[in-house]
């Protein structure tokens, strides 16, 4: 019944989504507590597929939470129309269409998306790094991402599919390898936003919510940025900025890479430059597969070429299925040069035991940010 109600609710509310994407949203939302714990509920609307009845009210977003006596549905908010054009504003509540968590938009980033699945004209293209696979150049187009807060109540439901402490900074002290993370901070693509509204004045549970945002019922959305958010954004802009996104699909497995420059530290009388990179693997097909190995090539401007091989990623070998199609993680790399390149492959295993290699799109490691001020994290 929940699946039926969800299907009717989302298909009418998000009618402009393409069919494949909508089905993928349903697979995440319909998984109960294991996939984010959300369902959309529309009572009393006749469903042609199963004959259940319900009404033609607005689709409501529900959250489920486990209690000793069982699962309880509670109203969270009401879905809004997806924006096909323009951007979402600071304070927009949303449900992540792939990972299913609740979140709120802090501010947008305008990135250049280099999609190797699209054959570009010769102009406005990005050349291949030395030794990378393939020879084509890739045209970049502007794409909107958002800095968001994740509701901490949903973190346990997504921890197996996406890291909730993936945004990291270099520490301010002398240890050149010390990192610290801001829990529940994420970057979300425009098409992954399912907007909704709520009557609650504090609809998202996160330690930074009330420090960054204030309730203002005269605005739409009714949450506006405090001065502390604006100051934090300005102070940490070099370390937060999302500028380039790289994407490539091999045999229905799409790999998206977003690199971030983290800063430079001195170690043993030399300069060490640090980057964070976020990777999402997404199964665009119906076949169940599992990531088994990684193979990286890391080229430094100093002239070195390093090869890294290993089992899985971040200690895991994730399964990608139609029900759980995506896995997202972050890692780090350091070079003793101000720039370099990375590329490689993931070894993927099918259910029959056969393997194939999925290409990781080549991406640049650039240190073109101002290193004068150390990252300040969320110290306000």
UniProtKB/TrEMBL annotation:
Transmembrane segments: none annotated. Involved in DNA damage tolerance by regulating translesion synthesis (TLS) of templates carrying DNA damage lesions such as 8oxoG and abasic sites. May act by stimulating activity of DNA polymerases involved in TLS, such as PRIMPOL and polymerase delta (POLD1). Keywords: DNA damage, DNA repair, Mitochondrion, Nucleus, Phosphoprotein, Transit peptide. Pfam families: DUF525 (PF04379), YccV-like (PF08755). The keyword DNA repair applies. Interacts with PCNA and POLD2. Interacts with SSBP1. Interacts with PRIMPOL; leading to enhance DNA polymerase activity of PRIMPOL. Interacts with POLH. Interacts with POLD1; leading to stimulate DNA polymerase activity of POLD1. Residues 247-372 form the ApaG domain. GO terms for molecular function: DNA binding. It is found in: Mitochondrion matrix; Nucleus. SUPFAM superfamilies: ApaG-like, YccV-like. Its main location: mitochondrion. This is Polymerase delta-interacting protein 2. GO terms for cellular component: mitochondrial nucleoid; nucleus. GO terms for biological process: DNA repair; error-free translesion synthesis. The keyword Transit peptide applies. InterPro entries: ApaG_domain, ApaG_sf, Hemimethylated_DNA-bd_dom, Hemimethylated_DNA-bd_sf. It comes from Myripristis murdjan.
């Amino acid at each position: 019944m929940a699946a039926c109600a969800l299907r009717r609710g989302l298909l009418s509310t998000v009618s402009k989504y393409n069919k494949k994407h909508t089905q993928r949203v349903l697979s995440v939302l319909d998984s109960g507590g294991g996939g984010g714990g959300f369902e959309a509920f529309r009572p009393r609307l006749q469903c042609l597929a199963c004959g259940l009845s319900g009404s033609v009210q607005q689709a409501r977003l529900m959250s489920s939470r486990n209690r000793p006596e069982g699962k309880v549905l509670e109203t969270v908010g009401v879905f809004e129309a997806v924006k096909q054009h323009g951007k979402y504003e600071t304070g927009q509540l949303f449900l992540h269409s792939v990972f299913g968590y609740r979140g709120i938009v802090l501010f947008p980033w305008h990135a250049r998306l280099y999609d190797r699945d699209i054959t570009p004209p010769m102009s406005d293209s990005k050349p291949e790094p030395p030794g990378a696979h393939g020879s084509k150049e890739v045209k970049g187009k502007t794409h909107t991402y958002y800095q968001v807060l994740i509701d901490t109540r949903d973190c346990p439901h997504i921890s197996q599919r996406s890291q909730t402490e993936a945004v990291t900074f270099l520490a301010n002290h002398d240890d050149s390898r010390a990192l610290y993370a801001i829990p529940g901070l994420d970057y979300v693509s425009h098409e992954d936003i399912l907007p909704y509204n709520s009557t609650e004045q504090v609809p998202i549970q996160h330690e930074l919510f009330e420090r960054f945002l204030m309730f203002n019922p005269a605005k739409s959305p009714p949450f506006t940025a405090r001065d502390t958010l604006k100051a934090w954004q300005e102070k940490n802009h070099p370390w937060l900025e999302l500028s380039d996104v790289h994407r490539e699909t091999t045999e229905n497995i799409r790999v998206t890479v977003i690199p971030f420059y983290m800063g430079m530290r001195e170690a043993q009388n030399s300069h060490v430059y640090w980057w964070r990179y976020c990777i999402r693997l997404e199964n665009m097909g119906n076949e169940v597969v599992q990531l088994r190995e990684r193979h990286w090539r890391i080229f430094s401007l100093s002239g070195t070429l390093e090869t890294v091989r290993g089992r899985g990623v971040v200690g895991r070998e994730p399964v990608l299925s139609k029900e759980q199609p995506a896995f997202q993680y972050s890692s780090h790399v350091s070079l003793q040069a101000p720039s370099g390149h990375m590329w490689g492959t993931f070894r993927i295993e099918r259910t029959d035991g056969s393997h194939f290699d999925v290409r990781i799109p080549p991406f640049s490691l650039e240190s073109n940010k101002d290193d004068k001020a150390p990252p300040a994290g969320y110290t306000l």
